[in-house]
Design a protein that fits this description.
- The complex is a heterodimer of chains A (299) and B (175).
- Chain A has 299 residues and is mainly α.
- Chain A has one domain.
- Chain A is built from eleven helices and no strands.
- The longest helix of chain A has 32 residues.
- Chain B has 175 residues and is mostly helical.
- Among the domains of chain B are: 82 residues, no CATH class; 39 residues.
- Helices cover 70% and strands 0% of the residues of chain B.
- Classes of the chains: A mainly alpha (299), B mainly alpha (175).
Chain lengths: 299, 175
């Protein structure tokens, strides 16, 4: 039954993200717009590029969707409302998200087009910048919870949310999550206005619809990860548990999507330099600080 | 044999998938396809770990291989002459040597799997949470020195490989 509820949350959440994103990009708030866009995408001809790597081209959008769904599988919406409560949940989340990279490289390589290929490899560069900033803050979170299980991680925040306990890790993880979901200002792999859609350039029709849906799921799953690791998951007064998770996730996604309106696109080399020269030392400092706090204070 | 038939079925299934993708690595002309086939071969091995209830190792395998093989694919594209395999170039070399090395490797692997006395299969498997804990204690206890020196070696070779890969820049004004 929990699978049904989680899929329902995903469907509604993905639709909400589409509404907010179109509002962030076009400046118009319309509840019906994503539905019409999806209809239009499914109605349109699905063009196949000349001499594509057909296997990669067809499987990349599906792999992207699967990666998003698997990530969602370890995110608890309420006690017991989780698809699979793995003992290694936090690590599994990393593993599933690593396949986003694989899918994007395949999508970039598949259609045999210049823009697409640049987009795909750019994401690999971006990955090298953000990857450590996903893993190292999670290490600090797991240190406090003394477990990799996402449910236990939420329970460890009963006294104090991790966003106050380890704000440094929160900021780093947030930036890395935006890089992972290629959200503006870190939208280098598709870079609208510069790379003609990047890895999306050759996708049309139903294939593009799957690709876009997959991205919505990934954004939602990352918001779920931020809520689980830093914002106390389902914990909160008065309202039912699942509602707290949903509210927090929607606030996080809205903030992630609207940031791009205010900040110019970051150049790849800047992001890489900042990720390695500033991000990793800060992440190490975060691990050290959390270790000291965990030893000294009992919360 | 403590596992069920379903366990055995999935173990065989993922095992065959791993071997098949391993064969695909050599069948395809495309370097990127080759790298991805190697990735999915390793993913199948990760799934085998999961079937054998070593959750941490399985998930770790799934995570590490995805990134490693992607980066390998990038290096293939950077350094190989025909990365897409569309020029139908034959990039294999030293065939006799590799055949012999492969044969010796196969014999060695079979010998290792058959000759030693493996003893009875583990009967009481600790649950996944306990496995993570035990692994952590092992890594920070008895095996710490081995893993730390391995980490340092890998870091050194990474830096060295990057140094080798950077093309020397010509000085301004040189011919």
């Amino acid at each position: 039954m929990s699978i049904f509820y989680i899929l329902l949350t995903l469907a509604i959440g993905a639709y909400f993200i589409a509404v907010v994103e179109s509002w962030a990009v076009h400046g118009r708030f319309s509840l019906s717009r994503p539905a019409f866009s999806a209809l239009a995408l499914f109605g349109r001809e699905s063009i196949l590029a000349r001499t594509p790597d057909r296997l990669f081209f067809e499987s990349a959008p599906v792999l992207l969707l699967v990666a998003g769904l698997l990530t969602m599988a370890v995110i608890p919406l309420a006690p017991g409302l989780i698809i699979t409560d793995l003992a290694t949940g936090a690590l599994f989340l990393n593993a599933a998200l690593a396949y986003v990279l694989v899918a994007l490289i395949m999508a970039g390589w598949g259609p045999n087009g210049g823009y697409a290929m640049i987009g795909g490899w750019r994401f690999l560069g971006q990955f090298i910048a953000y990857a450590m900033l996903i893993v190292m803050p999670i290490t600090a979170v797991a240190m406090r919870a003394e477990s990799l299980s996402t449910t236990l991680i939420v329970l460890s925040q009963a006294e104090l949310w991790n966003v106050f306990y380890q704000p440094l890790g929160f900021v780093l993880f947030w930036i890395a999550a935006m890089g992972l979901a290629w959200l503006p200002p870190l939208d280098l792999p598709n870079a609208p206005g510069e790379l003609a859609g990047g890895f999306e350039a050759e996708y049309t029709g139903a294939r593009l619809a799957v690709l876009r849906l997959a991205r919505m799921v990934i954004i939602l799953a990352l918001a779920g990860a931020i809520v689980t690791f830093y914002l106390g998951g389902w914990l909160g007064p008065w309202l039912p548990d699942w509602l707290w998770s949903v509210i927090k996730m929607l606030i996080v996604t809205t903030l992630m999507l609207t940031t791009g309106r205010l900040v110019p696109r970051v150049r790849e080399s800047y992001f890489l330099a900042a990720g390695w020269k500033l991000g990793i030392p800060l992440a190490l400092a975060n691990i050290f600080l959390v270790g000291v706090i965990a030893l000294v204070v009992d919360i | 044999m403590t596992g069920s038939y379903a366990e055995l079925f999935f173990l065989v299934f993922f095992g065959l998938a791993a071997v098949w993708f391993g064969i695909v690595v050599f069948r395809t002309h495309s370097m990127v396809r080759s790298a991805m086939a190697l990735l999915f071969s390793q993913t199948a091995v990760g799934a085998m770990f999961l079937v054998m209830q070593t959750e941490f190792l399985g998930v770790l395998q799934l995570m590490m291989m995805a990134t490693e093989m992607s980066i390998m694919a990038l290096f293939m594209v950077m350094f190989m002459m025909d990365p897409g395999g569309m020029g139908a170039m034959d990039m294999s070399h030293q065939k006799r040597l590799s055949l012999r090395a492969g044969g010796i490797g196969l014999v060695a692997a079979l010998a290792v799997s058959w000759l030693p006395d493996w003893g009875p299969a583990a009967s009481n498997i600790p649950d996944a949470g306990r496995q993570v804990e035990l692994l952590g204690i092992e890594l920070l206890g008895r095996s710490m020195f081995i893993f730390e020196s391995a980490g340092l070696t890998i870091l050194t070779s990474m830096i060295a490989a990057t140094m080798v890969a950077i093309a020397p820049r010509k000085k301004e004004g040189a011919a």
